[in-house]
Amino acid sequence: MKHVPDIQSERALGPDGRVVRDGGDGTLNELDENALEAALALVEASEGSVTVLTVGPDDAADAVRRGLQMGAEDAVHVLDDAIAGSDAIGTARVLAAAIRHLDAQQHVDLVVTGMAGLDGLTSLLPTALAELLDLPALPLAAELTVDGATVRVRRNLDHASEVLEATLPALVSVTDQANEPRYPNFKGIMAARKKPVTTLTLADLGVDASRVGLSGARTEVLEAAARPPRDDRVLVQDTGDAGVRLAAYLVDNQLV
């Protein structure tokens, strides 16, 4: 579960090419709420427990605390200054190490992620994480079920749907079509105060700091510029025929 800048706030890249993450309130990545809801529903339908995991600075703890309020049993926050500036591959490397750490303590059957982070919108992390963990990846699931040792997802494509299956353990990323995330109730909020949040560092996970952060990034932003203002807008004053004029414009420009 990722802590991201508020999508309603002004967003920009700083001089170093990194997303500016201060100057406004952050929030839990909305698409990760769908992932947590899917995991909670699986546990409620059968058995098991849900651990929420995040990587980021101090305020990233808000993301996993939200997860605890929604119903997760415990939480892990990987906190280390050396992680700052990591790209999707570096972040996946840290998450993979954290999941292996958890798996050594209690077997991890299923890793569930959102389909994208609303700050970068690369959608790269789920499959990169699956590759690093050597797990089958079932991305962009609109429906998720588990039957014994088999995980099954349905994906909605442009003109069809497809069903994918894999044997656990596996990794699934879910879309915002998968469910409607629950809202934490008062009981859940109060119970979350007593639930543990474990903080881990790169040293705890055995991750070489040179392989993450800016120094370990495999991508680099060379240049960025603000989107130029649009100068081709046409203001149509409705005198009763605006609909006809709009339809004619679409036809003339071969947009219908």
From TrEMBL:
GO terms for cellular component: cytosol. Its cofactor is FAD. The keyword Transport applies. Pfam families: ETF (PF01012). It comes from the Bacteria. InterPro entries: ETF_a/b_N (IPR014730), ETF_b (IPR012255), ETF_beta_N (IPR033948), Rossmann-like_a/b/a_fold (IPR014729). Heterodimer of an alpha and a beta subunit. The electron transfer flavoprotein serves as a specific electron acceptor for other dehydrogenases. It transfers the electrons to the main respiratory chain via ETF-ubiquinone oxidoreductase (ETF dehydrogenase). Belongs to the ETF beta-subunit/FixA family. This is Electron transfer flavoprotein subunit beta. The lineage of its organism: Bacteria, Bacillati, Actinomycetota, Actinomycetes, Micrococcales. The gene is fixA.
